[in-house]
Specification:
There is one protein chain. By secondary structure, the protein is of the alpha/beta class. Helix content is 47%, strand content 18%. It has 14 helices and twelve strands. The longest helix has 21 residues, at 202-222.
Amino acid sequence: MIAPYISDSFEMLPLKLTESGFSRGKVMLVGDTNTMPIYGNEAGGYLSRVFDGVFCHEFKAGEEHKNLRSVEELLLELLDRRFERGDCVAALGGGVTGDMAGFAAAVYLRGIRVIQLPTTLLAQIDSSIGGKTAVDFNGYKNMVGAFHMPELVYANTSVLKTLPKEQFAAGMGEVIKSAVLGDRELFYWLAGHRGDVMNLLPDALTDMISQTAAIKTGIVTRDPKEQGERALLNLGHTIGHAIEKYMNFEMLHGECVAVGTSAALRISRMRGMIDEAVENEVNALFRDYGLQTKVPGLPEDKILEFTKSDKKMKGGKIRFILPAGIGSAVVSDDVTEEELLCGIRAVTAQKTGND
């Protein structure tokens, strides 16, 4: 399991590719209609210093295009360009691009090499790491996929300057979630460095991304196929995915993770695993970084229905992740329907003066 290389430019990309064993051959640079016009030429230029042939594949931006049809179009282009097993796919973009390009690389010729060039904060600290690739299928998020580890993850922090504020905030949802489940020191580092992070100071971004990525890298190294500990990374995702699906993906993934984590906090508090002070402290940090912890007015019965249809099932029961304190979480297979409803109500009820 490799940790991402973090830089404030693409300048070191050729060297890192060479160090990762790349030499000549072809590469398919995959990006969407947002990333390719901004970064395609620059990234392609650096790739051309290592590869003999650089080809580009662009697809329409948006979660609604993360499907098997888009993958089929990419596979057809790989076939038309006569890509061989020694060639490579490079994913230039956020989580949608990384997931889709990674999945295509995993299934083409039973697997060709892939590198990740994440351009969103969420992708740099989460989705580009660990080899999970997938597309949405039949209304279910990430239902069809494969584990396919990247040969290189190259995080260029300078691209975050062009990221919309809501996209940056969504990335912070995953950062804070990671701190809650696995790193108490990072949690309080985030609380003390908010100004530096929000002002996109390079040193602060490098520190934050490296600390957050280390949490996932460590867990994935110990549990690459999600047989146990890796499930902890799903903190906030079960109810979060249900809200994301109900909202027809109008809310960003990281925004939904923040709300889902808040719901999980309430269930933990009901069980006596944490106290009210911890719940409030975590919710306050989410809000400090521009994330809401409630979505008032959503129908609790529909959110519960979507939650119970989540793919993270084991023996007919939902594998739910519960915070056990700041920097600690546990996997639970015995969360009841009533507990789920209480968690959902905590984040869908009308706001009070304390929210």
